[in-house]
Design goal:
This protein has 498 residues and is an alpha+beta fold. Helices cover 52% and strands 17% of the residues. The longest helix is centred in the first third of the chain and has 71 residues, at 8-78.
């Protein structure tokens, strides 16, 4: 119980209960006073109407007629034994001696004169004496006779007592239900929070397979649980990917480092030869460049995924970037005996990083050219459904549908032996660049149903707001990768063409 009371959920429930109880109490208090006052107001209206009628009787029939009417009304009330008549009548002479009425004497607390008065009355009810207040109106009739007409406020007192008892019981019931409801609500909330805490504790101890249970009600806790589970799924995928990347890096770097060491060791053993030394140094530099290319690719991917360059985004002409990249790769296509087609619309403006977008397009073209044995490669840039649409198509063997998501991961290749050269980072960088620019990327068959369906890589990017333009960057060729960029110095088999 102490643990429940010290929780934020219980404090929140207590605050809501306090507000609710205060509202209920204020409502009952308002009902009490307004209803009680209404009963007394009704009594005064009845008295006022009756005393006016009796005064009219006096004017028409004199004192004898008035006394007769009062006696008739008292007798009518007495003929019903179970009925208690709350109406009080008294008519007196100028010396306040009783002439008629059901009140024995003139009340001691009431002075002479006209107006509204209150005084105590005593009655025998069910064998015991009760004292209540009476409310009456007094008028002085011609001849200095005094007429008092009033009502016993016993009903008003009983009504107030009943309202008070009802309010007391309502307050107790409200308090009980509020406390029970607060405890149940707190316990229910704590049960859901405890489920999250238990799952978190198990995950902290290394069990990444644990997930927060979902009740299926679709409430805020279910939404939180679903988001946490999605986050945990992502963390588990990242951890698995990290382990895979670590293994792949160790495998991919061990081979070139072993070659490099063996080459240098053999050179030292052999007879000194300046020409041989020069050849070995050139091969060593090339091997080091390939290693640096792998590390640079990993750094570029990490930088893009971290979003550190998003603050430097500006409105750029994607059409201009695509044309410049196409100019660099058209000679490579001619040299390989492949057709090269471009279809680039004018002035497609996006917000982004010029160098990263050019590197992404260059990687796609480089992969397509390397793994297309014959046929053609096509590049198109246009707008579709309010977005920039980049497509690179080829006529190669394509990528199986069940591997199209996997090839975007680092160091993933379609062949499992990893004996072919390549770092397996090309498509990983392209996906990181697309994600950095709030875009999407996917793979399709270029010619569905064909024996060699080829591959179509599609990137969609949001257009720049307002269609802002930028001046052409005359230094763009210096930023673009060469036809054999360092990132793909060896054929990146992750593209799935081997």
């Amino acid at each position: 119980m102490r643990g429940i009371i010290n929780t934020s959920a219980f404090r929140l429930a207590a605050i809501y209960f306090t507000l609710f109880a205060t509202s209920v109490l204020a409502l009952l208090t308002f009902i009490y006073f307004s209803t009680a006052d209404f009963v007394e107001a009704q009594a005064e209206e009845t008295i006022d109407a009756e005393i006016r009628g009796l005064a009219e009787q006096y004017r028409e029939h004199g004192l004898a007629g008035l006394v007769e009417v009062i006696d008739q009304r008292i007798a009518a009330a007495q003929r019903t034994p179970t009925r208690i008549d709350d109406t009080i009548y008294l008519i007196t002479d100028p010396l306040l001696h009783k002439l008629a009425g059901n009140l024995e004497t003139w009340p001691q607390t009431v002075e002479r004169g006209s107006g509204w008065v209150s005084f105590p009355v005593t009655e025998q009810i069910a064998g015991h004496t009760e004292t209540d207040n009476a409310r009456a109106s007094v008028i002085v009739l011609p001849g200095n006779f005094h007429l008092l007409v009033g009502r016993n406020l016993r009903d008003a007192r009983l009504f107030r007592l009943r309202i008070t008892n009802t309010m007391g019981w309502a307050a107790l019931i409200t308090l009980g239900l509020g406390v029970i409801g607060g405890l149940l609500m707190t316990r229910n909330m704590l049960r859901k929070v405890d489920a999250v805490n238990r799952t978190s504790t198990q995950i902290i101890h290394g069990d990444l397979s644990q997930r927060v249970p979902v009740s299926g009600t679709g409430d805020e806790f279910d939404q939180l649980a679903q988001n946490l589970n999605a986050m945990l799924d992502q963390i588990e995928r990242l951890m698995a990917g990290m382990r895979q990347v670590t293994d792949n890096i160790a495998h991919d770097l061990r081979t070139p480092l072993s070659r490099l060491r063996a080459r240098l060791e053999v050179t030292l053993i052999e007879k000194p030869d300046e020409v041989r030394y020069a050849d070995v140094l050139r091969e060593t530099i090339n091997e080091a460049d390939r290693l640096l290319g792998t590390f640079n690719a990993l750094l570029s991917i990490a930088e893009a995924e971290a979003g550190s360059r998003r603050d430097s985004f500006e409105a750029i002409d994607l059409s201009e970037i695509a044309r410049d990249v196409a100019e660099l790769y058209e000679p490579v296509a001619d040299e390989s005996g492949l057709g090269f087609e471009t279809q680039i619309a004018d002035r497609i403006m996006v917000r982004g990083d010029r160098h990263l977008l050019s590197q992404a397009i260059a990687n796609l073209l480089d992969n397509a050219l390397k793994y297309t044995p014959e046929g053609k490669v096509a590049l198109s840039v246009e707008t579709r459904a309010g977005k920039a649409h980049i497509e690179v198509r080829d006529t190669g063997p394509g990528v199986p549908a069940d591997r199209r998501n996997a090839v975007f991961d680092r160091f993933v290749r379609l062949e499992g032996s990893r004996s072919t050269p390549g770092n397996g980072l090309g498509l990983s960088l392209v996906r990181a660049v697309a994600t950095l620019h709030e875009g999407t990327i996917w793979l399709e068959d270029s010619v569905p149903g064909a024996e060699h369906p080829g591959l179509k890589v599609v990137i969609e990017l949001p257009l720049a707001a307002g269609g802002a333009t930028s001046e052409p960057d005359r230094d763009l060729p210096r930023l673009l990768p060469a036809p054999a960029p360092a990132l793909t110095a060896e054929p990146p088999r992750d593209f799935g063409k081997a």
